[in-house]
Amino acid sequence: CDQADNILVAFSADICRVCRSEGTPEKPLYHPCVCTGSIKFIHQECLVQWLKHSRKEYCELCKHRFAFTPSKYILLVGFFF
After folding, report:
1. Boundaries of each RING-CH-type domain copy (predicted)?
2. How many domains are contained in the chain?
């Protein structure tokens, strides 16, 4: 593996468009709208926080209404914090 291959791998990992972190088994990435490319993915927790802050039910970029069902755990954490 040369340096060019390492750079390609580094840029090909999917990341959350809000926190810029990769998905994990505990915090997977979702794509709740029709955006594509580097802005396609988001963690559920990040989306819930964004929805609370923005008070919008649709993506400001693609105008698609978000399609997801937050887990009960996420709703409880959002309620208490």
Report:
1. 8-69
2. 1
pLDDT of 34 strictly over 90: yes
| Residue 80 main-chain phi, psi, to 5 deg | -90, -15
Residues whose CB falls within 8 Å of the CB of residue 74, separated by 6 or more in sequence, listed in order: 44, 45, 48
Please give the sequence-ordered ranges of beta strands (E in DSSP) within the chain, or none if there are none: 29-30, 42-43
Tokens of 57: 């039910």
Three-state DSSP state, 76: helix
Cβ neighbours, 10 Å, residue 26: 5
**What is the predicted pLDDT for the residue at 46?**
93
CATH code for position 17: 3.30.40.10
Q: Give pTM, 2 decimals.
A: 0.68
Longest CA–CA span in the chain (Å) reads: 48
